[in-house]
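Let us work through a complete example step by step.
Step 1: write down the sequence.
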Amino acid sequence: MRKLADLLKHPLRELQGEVDEAVSPERYTLLRRKIIALMVAATLIPLSVMAVLNYYEHQNAMAREIQNPLRVLVNKTKNSFELFLAERTSTVSLIASAYTYQELADQQKLARIFSVMKREFEGFVDLGLIDEHGTQVNYVGPYTLQGKNYADQRWFQEVRLKGKYVSDVFMGFRKFPHVIVAVQHMTEDGRTWILRATLDTKQFERIIASMSLEPDADAFLVNGQGLMQTSSNNYGKVLEKVSFPLPPMTYEPTVVNMTDPLGREVFLAYAYFPDADFVLMAVKPRSSSLKTWYTVRGDLLFIFVAGVAVVLIAAMRVTDALIRRMKEAEDRRELALREVEHSQKLSSIGRLAAGVAHEVNNPLAIINEKTGLMKDILDMQGDFPAKAKLLAQVESVLRAVERCRGITHRMLGFARRMDVSIEDLDLSELIRETAGFLANEAMHRKVDVQLDMDPELPRIVSDRSQLQQVFLNLFNNALAAVADGGNITVTARPESDGVRVSVADNGCGMSEETLKHIFEPFFTTKKGKGTGLGLSITYGIIKRLGGEISVESTQGVGTTLTITLPKGQREALA
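Step 2: predict the structure and record it as tokens.
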């Protein structure tokens, strides 16, 4: 029988293992982390991609907004330089065409012409007439250059080839940075001569100053060899080599990003001159140019971080709500599985009890018949010395058989659904009557039993004998739990659709582990005394009558068993 019971319990243990595994706290923690990670990834990846794209698009747009004004400024300044040089070149060309060689060779006339030039056009330093051999035959200006020969100078060869020439900044005989404008003129008899004027480079400085750049910006001229034509704040003085490579040649204003020799990220705007060996450059640090962008970038970063925080909070809250609902569903599932487990155990133990009861009833019937026959034979015999003693022993056997019949009858009642005898009941009277069965034991042990019955307790429709068995089991358990001198309180109160009865004691109480098994058949804490069927039978009866049973217990404090019974309908319980 013990092996059979273990086999019957084995599938229930597997079911219990599945329930414990299903509601493992680690499982919920892992599931929560996975859901949060999935939600965060699904939200933050597109958000991050969008933020990165917006970052670079806005940065590029801001760079274009900064580069365009810089490009326009360089273009305008370049035009100013070209206009300045074109005017001076045209002035020298006009004088060379308007006057003959002999007139220009006259010192007084050349001085008067130069005086008018300086008055009408700023920037002229001197004026000289140079013959076809490169010798300066007439000169007006602050230097002593009369008779100097320029045949070996590069500019002289350039003007002989091109007819007009504007030099870059160089030192020459003056030992001072200057620019020359030279125009070649040919007479009718084929003789050639050159009229050359010198320009002050301070005019270049003034044109650059008119750009009105920010203090940390810079603008300057260089020639095709990278020599500075004007002074720079950061990259060298006049005729020094510029401290970074020249950008690719283009006559259109162009802006490039670069790192200058000072280690700064800068915008370099530049344009080459088509008719002169000049490159106009303007440098503007990116940090100052992108101050507005850095402000916007901070706002974008704040919005992104705030968005991420909102996503995380939303993901955690949604996940918590989802996990909570899943846990509630798992708890309901566990409760349902436990009820199924109880039903399976009751069914299994019922089948076992039915088999045992039938097997025991057969020998009990034989014992009863044989003992009855022995009694009849003894009654027919006359008196003899041991007759009274034998009859007493026969009567004792018959009482034991009758007791065994009662036990097997109860086991059969547990094994099958016994017929329900429905009647109108006064629950208060039934509880008092059942409590009276244990009054002597309670009085002997000085246990105080309090019956708190509501006067308005309604009558119910149920089975009297089965309810009596239920309350008897509960009262027996309460008496077994309390020590001598303890307290038991029975409370009955009306409910909206029935009655609620609570049996509370101040006994030893139960642990959480014990509470999980109290309705299981053969589970008992009364080592060597109880069978473990009382509460299992009680549970089955209450469920059969349409009620509910629950238990609350604290170890060392006491236990309260609560039964809720419906008012009942005769048809429903029949």
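Step 3: interpret the result. Residues 13 and 522 are 15 Å apart (CA to CA).
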